[in-house]
Amino acid sequence: MTKIKISEAVQAPSCPVIVNASVLRKIGNTPIIPIRSLGKEFPDVEIYAKAEWRNAGGSVKARPALQMIEDGEASGELTHDKIILDSTSGNTGVAYALIGKIKGYRVKLVMPANAVKDRKGQMADFYGAEIVTSSPFEGSDGAIILAREIYENNRDIYFMPDQYNNPSNWKAHYLHTAPEIWKQTDGRVTHFCAGIGTGGTIMGNSRRLRELNPKIKCYAVEPAEELHGIEGLKHMGSSIVPGIYDESTLDGKISVATEKSYDMVATLEKEEGILVGHSSAAAMVAALELAKQIKKGVIVTVFPDSCDTCYINFGKFKESVETHHLPPKTDS
Which of 142, 166, 258, 289 has its C-alpha lying 20 to 30 A from 45's C-alpha? Predict the structure, then answer.
């Protein structure tokens, strides 16, 4: 099948390489992508995905990172004599590092050792964050525990957003993402599903969308296996449950097998021309499962990031700096 081309406005890399205050205006208002080829067997169901890699920082996590930092500033808890400290498996760390660099804050991130070596860890490091490694065998839960220990040992020097328990996390989606979805679908959205990492995306969007229309059904997406390979998602039965996650407010959960998620990465590229990672692919699998269950409707899901946009832009950034000692020209 011929590969479908998505507009350059959606596919273009968006990780900024020039860090000034204007970059923060590029967080939010992401495009929505119609899923046409994969959804063709459901003629009365429309499926859309939010292209969250279009946020500055390259992922959905830029939204809550900015909200938590700015709410911390407004409350007086975050001042320039404090270090922003939190645990992360990648995307939130990139966002903290980017925003911290722009706003003039020091940033310390606790990341699993295996995550530090990938492109997200490199991006966070390049933006100037100090990185502390936790055990690669304990995953995100190990990073959470170590970050909490560091904070408790010296509370006075740190501002800890604590993305897993901070209501400002879901508030970012309540205030911004959900209204965008409502507007972009002309208020026709009937079903929403999103992966569970910290729980912010599914909680914030669900709460706001249901205020706009109480009939909207909302589902969390999680890995089917306890030992899974879907980066960024949590299997709730075997993980530390985020404090902001309230399963009772949802209509259900959709479990996605790791293998199906991996297969969907290739399928999305071939059938839709969209390059995404495993967590976005898992959201797509869940949206299609949901489409099978309903006779008619408008499903919206969230693609948290792209598989390569940060890598591509970071690669150009690093190459330019090393060669010319100057950042490349961009529209950022």
Answer: 258
